[in-house]
Amino acid sequence: MEVEFVHTEDFDERMRYAFAATPYGADALVAWCRRGVCYIGFVTGSREESLADATSRMPHADMSEGDIAECPHGRLCLVGTEFRFAVWRGLLGVGPGERTTYGGLAAAIGRPRSARAVGQAVGANPVAVMVPCHRVVAADGSLHGYRWGTELKRRILERESQYPDEDFFGGLH
């Protein structure tokens, strides 16, 4: 997968979005620009609330509805800061079936005393599943801290253990 990192202040793109059913029991809102997929979030309330969340995370983007078939599946465009980029690169290194902790991820990116800041960057991940923030667990191995709830996190991890090579977009319909 191709990943482009763009600083927040440099991002001013026209974006398209679409809602799609996922195999995880929750629909997803997927948003993209010419550079790649910029946002994947799960719909746990209304679609309007999900769109408002995506818009608040991409305040400089011009969003309009599109067709999921137009989405550039093989490319990500991650918008953030250098620290977040380091954390998201670290997450991309956690493979299917693997788990890490916030402290473990902090150590892996060379910031061993920054577990809390790493946790905030994990929570700010704009592209659920594709940047695998769901693979981060508490120090005791328990599931917590997932923006869309621990039950959805558990379902994603279960599906991933059953289909480790499944592409996120292959499961959409």
Description:
This protein folds into two domains: 2-77, Double Stranded RNA Binding Domain (2-Layer Sandwich); 82-165, Arc Repressor Mutant, subunit A (Orthogonal Bundle), CATH 1.10.10.10. Helix 3 (102-108) crosses helix 4. The protein starts with a strand and ends in an 11-residue tail after the last helix. It has five helices and eight strands, in the order E-E-E-E-H-E-E-H-E-H-H-E-H. The chain is of the alpha/beta class and 173 residues long. The protein has helices spanning 47-57, 82-92, 102-108, 115-123, 150-162; strands at 2-7, 14-20, 28-33, 36-42, 62-65, 75-80, 100-101, 136-137. The longest helix has 13 residues, at 150-162.
Quickly describe the structure:
The protein has helices at 47-57, 82-92, 102-108, 115-123, 150-162; strands at residues 2-7, 14-20, 28-33, 36-42, 62-65, 75-80, 100-101, 136-137.
